[in-house]
Specification:
The protein is an alpha/beta fold and 255 residues long. Helices cover 47% and strands 16% of the residues. The protein has 12 helices and 10 strands. It has helices spanning 28-42, 65-69, 73-77, 81-89, 106-113, 140-148, 150-159, 165-171, 183-195, 199-211, 217-231, 235-245, and strands at 4-9, 12-17, 49-53, 58-60, 95-99, 102-104, 116-120, 124-126, 163-164, 176-178. Strand 2, helix 1 and strand 3 (49-53) form a beta-alpha-beta unit. The chain is globular and about 60 Å long. Bound molecules: octanoyl-coenzyme A (CO8). Octanoyl-coenzyme A binds next to helix 2, helix 4 and strand 6.
Length: 255
Protein backbone atom coordinates (compact mmCIF):
# COMPACT_ATOMS: atom_id res chain seq x y z
CA UNK A 1 0.00 0.00 0.00
CA UNK A 2 1.22 3.52 -0.75
CA UNK A 3 2.73 5.47 2.10
CA UNK A 4 0.84 8.60 1.04
CA UNK A 5 -2.90 8.20 0.55
CA UNK A 6 -4.90 10.80 -1.26
CA UNK A 7 -8.62 11.50 -1.45
CA UNK A 8 -10.72 14.24 -2.98
CA UNK A 9 -13.89 15.89 -1.81
CA UNK A 10 -15.07 18.71 -4.01
CA UNK A 11 -12.20 21.26 -4.12
CA UNK A 12 -10.27 19.83 -1.17
CA UNK A 13 -7.48 17.28 -1.55
CA UNK A 14 -6.57 15.27 1.57
CA UNK A 15 -3.13 13.67 1.78
CA UNK A 16 -2.72 11.07 4.53
CA UNK A 17 0.71 10.00 5.81
CA UNK A 18 0.53 6.24 6.03
CA UNK A 19 3.62 4.61 7.57
CA UNK A 20 2.06 3.28 10.77
CA UNK A 21 4.92 0.84 11.36
CA UNK A 22 7.29 3.84 11.67
CA UNK A 23 4.77 6.24 13.25
CA UNK A 24 4.64 8.13 9.95
CA UNK A 25 8.33 9.01 10.14
CA UNK A 26 9.14 11.25 7.19
CA UNK A 27 11.79 9.41 5.20
CA UNK A 28 13.01 10.90 1.95
CA UNK A 29 10.67 8.75 -0.15
CA UNK A 30 7.60 9.98 1.74
CA UNK A 31 8.75 13.61 1.58
CA UNK A 32 9.22 13.18 -2.17
CA UNK A 33 5.73 11.72 -2.58
CA UNK A 34 4.37 14.67 -0.62
CA UNK A 35 6.25 17.16 -2.79
CA UNK A 36 5.05 15.38 -5.98
CA UNK A 37 1.44 15.36 -4.77
CA UNK A 38 1.53 19.05 -3.90
CA UNK A 39 3.04 19.97 -7.25
CA UNK A 40 0.32 18.00 -9.01
CA UNK A 41 -2.29 19.79 -6.85
CA UNK A 42 -0.72 23.13 -7.72
CA UNK A 43 -1.37 22.67 -11.42
CA UNK A 44 -4.86 21.23 -10.93
CA UNK A 45 -7.36 24.10 -11.06
CA UNK A 46 -10.05 21.94 -9.53
CA UNK A 47 -8.14 21.76 -6.24
CA UNK A 48 -8.55 24.82 -4.06
CA UNK A 49 -6.88 23.70 -0.82
CA UNK A 50 -5.00 20.74 0.63
CA UNK A 51 -5.17 19.08 4.04
CA UNK A 52 -2.27 16.92 5.24
CA UNK A 53 -3.02 14.50 8.05
CA UNK A 54 -1.65 11.38 9.74
CA UNK A 55 -3.38 8.75 11.82
CA UNK A 56 -5.54 9.23 14.90
CA UNK A 57 -2.57 8.35 17.12
CA UNK A 58 0.32 9.94 15.30
CA UNK A 59 0.71 12.77 12.82
CA UNK A 60 4.43 12.14 12.22
CA UNK A 61 7.24 11.06 14.56
CA UNK A 62 9.88 13.13 12.77
CA UNK A 63 12.59 12.30 10.30
CA UNK A 64 13.16 8.58 9.81
CA UNK A 65 15.85 7.80 12.36
CA UNK A 66 16.72 4.49 10.74
CA UNK A 67 17.43 6.33 7.48
CA UNK A 68 19.24 9.16 9.27
CA UNK A 69 21.45 6.81 11.30
CA UNK A 70 23.25 5.69 8.16
CA UNK A 71 24.10 9.21 6.97
CA UNK A 72 27.43 10.71 7.86
CA UNK A 73 28.36 14.36 7.42
CA UNK A 74 29.09 14.28 3.66
CA UNK A 75 25.86 12.33 3.07
CA UNK A 76 23.94 14.87 5.19
CA UNK A 77 25.53 17.66 3.18
CA UNK A 78 24.33 16.08 -0.06
CA UNK A 79 20.97 15.02 1.34
CA UNK A 80 18.10 15.89 -1.04
CA UNK A 81 15.90 16.71 2.00
CA UNK A 82 16.37 20.51 1.91
CA UNK A 83 15.22 20.54 -1.73
CA UNK A 84 12.25 18.32 -0.86
CA UNK A 85 11.23 20.67 1.95
CA UNK A 86 11.64 23.64 -0.39
CA UNK A 87 9.31 22.00 -2.93
CA UNK A 88 6.70 21.48 -0.21
CA UNK A 89 7.13 25.03 1.03
CA UNK A 90 6.60 26.47 -2.46
CA UNK A 91 3.02 25.13 -2.63
CA UNK A 92 1.07 28.32 -3.34
CA UNK A 93 -2.46 27.23 -2.39
CA UNK A 94 -3.84 27.10 1.16
CA UNK A 95 -2.22 24.19 3.03
CA UNK A 96 -3.77 22.91 6.25
CA UNK A 97 -2.59 20.22 8.64
CA UNK A 98 -4.89 18.12 10.80
CA UNK A 99 -2.75 16.82 13.65
CA UNK A 100 -3.70 14.01 16.01
CA UNK A 101 -1.22 12.48 18.42
CA UNK A 102 2.49 13.13 18.01
CA UNK A 103 3.89 15.84 15.76
CA UNK A 104 7.58 15.54 16.64
CA UNK A 105 10.73 16.78 14.98
CA UNK A 106 10.17 16.93 11.24
CA UNK A 107 6.48 16.17 11.92
CA UNK A 108 6.22 19.35 13.95
CA UNK A 109 8.23 21.16 11.25
CA UNK A 110 5.78 19.98 8.60
CA UNK A 111 2.85 21.31 10.66
CA UNK A 112 4.66 24.62 11.16
CA UNK A 113 5.33 24.89 7.44
CA UNK A 114 1.60 24.63 6.75
CA UNK A 115 -0.65 27.67 6.76
CA UNK A 116 -3.22 26.56 9.34
CA UNK A 117 -2.85 23.78 11.92
CA UNK A 118 -5.86 22.14 13.56
CA UNK A 119 -5.06 19.71 16.34
CA UNK A 120 -6.90 17.04 18.23
CA UNK A 121 -7.01 17.33 22.00
CA UNK A 122 -4.56 14.38 22.12
CA UNK A 123 -1.93 16.18 20.01
CA UNK A 124 1.63 16.74 21.20
CA UNK A 125 4.03 19.11 19.47
CA UNK A 126 7.73 18.84 20.11
CA UNK A 127 11.25 19.14 18.74
CA UNK A 128 13.06 16.26 20.49
CA UNK A 129 16.18 16.46 18.29
CA UNK A 130 18.35 17.67 21.20
CA UNK A 131 17.74 14.35 22.97
CA UNK A 132 19.32 12.61 19.95
CA UNK A 133 22.45 14.73 19.96
CA UNK A 134 21.27 16.81 17.03
CA UNK A 135 19.11 19.89 16.53
CA UNK A 136 16.11 20.78 14.36
CA UNK A 137 17.18 21.01 10.73
CA UNK A 138 14.07 21.64 8.68
CA UNK A 139 12.93 25.02 9.92
CA UNK A 140 12.25 24.03 13.53
CA UNK A 141 14.25 26.73 15.27
CA UNK A 142 13.34 29.49 12.84
CA UNK A 143 9.62 28.84 12.45
CA UNK A 144 8.98 27.97 16.09
CA UNK A 145 10.46 31.17 17.49
CA UNK A 146 8.58 33.29 14.97
CA UNK A 147 5.37 31.58 15.88
CA UNK A 148 5.51 31.12 19.68
CA UNK A 149 8.14 33.67 20.72
CA UNK A 150 11.42 33.40 22.57
CA UNK A 151 10.45 31.87 25.92
CA UNK A 152 8.63 28.80 24.69
CA UNK A 153 10.83 28.27 21.62
CA UNK A 154 14.06 28.11 23.68
CA UNK A 155 12.37 25.88 26.22
CA UNK A 156 11.06 23.44 23.61
CA UNK A 157 14.26 23.27 21.55
CA UNK A 158 16.67 23.03 24.50
CA UNK A 159 14.66 20.53 26.57
CA UNK A 160 13.20 18.55 23.68
CA UNK A 161 9.97 18.36 25.68
CA UNK A 162 6.66 18.37 23.85
CA UNK A 163 3.69 20.65 24.55
CA UNK A 164 0.01 19.78 24.54
CA UNK A 165 -2.57 20.95 22.02
CA UNK A 166 -3.93 23.47 24.55
CA UNK A 167 -0.46 24.90 25.16
CA UNK A 168 0.10 25.07 21.41
CA UNK A 169 -3.18 26.94 20.99
CA UNK A 170 -2.35 29.43 23.73
CA UNK A 171 1.10 29.97 22.22
CA UNK A 172 -0.28 30.64 18.74
CA UNK A 173 1.25 27.56 17.11
CA UNK A 174 -2.12 26.20 16.04
CA UNK A 175 -5.47 27.67 15.11
CA UNK A 176 -7.90 25.33 16.84
CA UNK A 177 -8.15 22.34 19.18
CA UNK A 178 -10.79 19.76 18.24
CA UNK A 179 -12.04 16.48 19.67
CA UNK A 180 -9.48 14.12 18.13
CA UNK A 181 -12.10 12.03 16.31
CA UNK A 182 -13.20 15.20 14.48
CA UNK A 183 -9.88 16.90 13.69
CA UNK A 184 -9.74 15.79 10.06
CA UNK A 185 -13.40 16.57 9.45
CA UNK A 186 -13.03 20.07 10.94
CA UNK A 187 -9.90 20.68 8.86
CA UNK A 188 -11.62 19.49 5.68
CA UNK A 189 -14.62 21.72 6.37
CA UNK A 190 -12.38 24.69 7.00
CA UNK A 191 -10.40 23.90 3.84
CA UNK A 192 -13.67 23.69 1.87
CA UNK A 193 -14.74 27.12 3.14
CA UNK A 194 -11.37 28.55 2.16
CA UNK A 195 -11.36 26.80 -1.23
CA UNK A 196 -14.60 28.45 -2.29
CA UNK A 197 -12.85 31.84 -2.42
CA UNK A 198 -11.18 33.27 -5.51
CA UNK A 199 -7.97 31.25 -6.16
CA UNK A 200 -5.83 34.20 -7.22
CA UNK A 201 -6.89 36.21 -4.18
CA UNK A 202 -6.05 33.25 -1.91
CA UNK A 203 -2.65 32.87 -3.51
CA UNK A 204 -1.89 36.57 -3.25
CA UNK A 205 -3.00 36.68 0.39
CA UNK A 206 -0.85 33.65 1.22
CA UNK A 207 2.16 35.23 -0.50
CA UNK A 208 1.73 38.46 1.45
CA UNK A 209 1.28 36.68 4.78
CA UNK A 210 4.39 34.56 4.22
CA UNK A 211 6.47 37.60 3.36
CA UNK A 212 5.62 39.14 6.73
CA UNK A 213 8.48 37.17 8.30
CA UNK A 214 10.96 37.97 5.54
CA UNK A 215 10.49 41.67 4.88
CA UNK A 216 10.58 44.90 6.85
CA UNK A 217 7.17 46.41 7.58
CA UNK A 218 7.70 49.05 4.87
CA UNK A 219 8.68 46.44 2.27
CA UNK A 220 5.85 44.15 3.36
CA UNK A 221 3.31 46.94 3.04
CA UNK A 222 4.63 47.73 -0.44
CA UNK A 223 4.34 44.13 -1.49
CA UNK A 224 0.84 43.87 -0.05
CA UNK A 225 -0.17 46.95 -2.03
CA UNK A 226 1.32 45.50 -5.24
CA UNK A 227 -0.54 42.23 -4.81
CA UNK A 228 -3.75 44.10 -3.93
CA UNK A 229 -3.34 46.20 -7.09
CA UNK A 230 -2.69 43.13 -9.27
CA UNK A 231 -5.93 41.56 -8.06
CA UNK A 232 -7.79 44.58 -9.46
CA UNK A 233 -7.04 43.11 -12.91
CA UNK A 234 -8.83 39.84 -12.18
CA UNK A 235 -12.28 38.86 -13.36
CA UNK A 236 -12.91 37.30 -9.95
CA UNK A 237 -12.49 40.67 -8.26
CA UNK A 238 -15.20 42.13 -10.53
CA UNK A 239 -17.35 39.10 -9.85
CA UNK A 240 -16.83 39.17 -6.07
CA UNK A 241 -17.81 42.80 -5.72
CA UNK A 242 -20.70 42.52 -8.24
CA UNK A 243 -22.05 39.47 -6.42
CA UNK A 244 -22.03 41.34 -3.12
CA UNK A 245 -23.81 44.34 -4.60
CA UNK A 246 -26.36 42.12 -6.38
CA UNK A 247 -26.90 40.07 -3.18
CA UNK A 248 -26.02 36.74 -4.79
CA UNK A 249 -23.26 34.16 -4.25
CA UNK A 250 -20.10 34.80 -6.24
CA UNK A 251 -19.12 32.36 -8.98
CA UNK A 252 -15.33 32.57 -9.06
CA UNK A 253 -13.45 31.30 -12.10
CA UNK A 254 -9.81 31.61 -11.04
CA UNK A 255 -9.10 34.39 -13.53
N1 LIG B 1 12.04 7.15 12.68
C1 LIG B 1 12.01 5.83 12.40
N2 LIG B 1 11.26 4.94 13.07
C2 LIG B 1 10.48 5.42 14.07
C3 LIG B 1 10.44 6.79 14.42
C4 LIG B 1 11.27 7.67 13.68
N3 LIG B 1 11.30 9.01 13.91
N4 LIG B 1 9.58 6.96 15.44
C5 LIG B 1 9.09 5.73 15.73
N5 LIG B 1 9.64 4.81 14.90
C6 LIG B 1 9.42 3.35 14.89
C7 LIG B 1 10.08 2.71 16.09
O1 LIG B 1 11.45 2.47 15.86
C8 LIG B 1 9.26 1.44 16.19
O2 LIG B 1 9.75 0.52 15.22
P1 LIG B 1 9.94 -1.03 15.60
O3 LIG B 1 8.54 -1.53 15.81
O4 LIG B 1 10.60 -1.58 14.37
O5 LIG B 1 10.77 -1.08 16.84
C9 LIG B 1 7.86 1.88 15.76
O6 LIG B 1 8.03 3.10 15.03
C10 LIG B 1 6.96 2.17 16.94
O7 LIG B 1 7.62 3.09 17.78
P2 LIG B 1 7.33 3.16 19.34
O8 LIG B 1 7.24 1.77 19.90
O9 LIG B 1 8.34 4.07 19.95
O10 LIG B 1 5.85 3.78 19.32
P3 LIG B 1 5.08 4.54 20.48
O11 LIG B 1 3.68 4.69 19.98
O12 LIG B 1 5.32 3.89 21.79
O13 LIG B 1 5.77 6.01 20.57
C11 LIG B 1 6.64 8.05 19.62
C12 LIG B 1 5.58 6.92 19.53
C13 LIG B 1 6.44 8.87 20.90
C14 LIG B 1 6.43 8.93 18.41
C15 LIG B 1 8.05 7.44 19.64
O14 LIG B 1 8.16 6.46 18.60
C16 LIG B 1 9.17 8.43 19.43
O15 LIG B 1 9.55 9.12 20.37
N6 LIG B 1 9.76 8.48 18.19
C17 LIG B 1 10.91 9.29 17.89
C18 LIG B 1 10.57 10.76 17.89
C19 LIG B 1 11.77 11.60 17.54
O16 LIG B 1 12.79 11.60 18.21
N7 LIG B 1 11.65 12.38 16.44
C20 LIG B 1 12.68 13.27 15.99
C21 LIG B 1 13.37 12.67 14.82
S1 LIG B 1 14.74 13.69 14.30
C22 LIG B 1 14.06 14.85 13.26
O17 LIG B 1 12.91 14.86 12.99
C23 LIG B 1 15.07 15.85 12.77
C24 LIG B 1 14.74 16.40 11.41
C25 LIG B 1 15.90 17.18 10.92
C26 LIG B 1 16.03 16.93 9.44
C27 LIG B 1 17.14 17.70 8.83
C28 LIG B 1 17.35 17.29 7.40
C29 LIG B 1 18.32 18.14 6.67
Amino acid sequence: MSELLSSRNDRVLTLTLNRPQARNALNNALLEQLADALEAAQSDDSIGAVVITGSERCFAAGADLKEMASRDMPATLNDPRPQLWARIERFPKPLLTAVNGYALGAGCELAMLSDIVLAGDNARFGLPEITLGIMPGAGGTQRLIRSVGKALAYRMVLTGEAITADQALRAGLIAEVCPSALTLEYAQKLAARIAQHAPLALQAAKTALRQAHELSLTQGLQQERQLFTLLAATADRQEGIAAFLEKRPAAFKGR
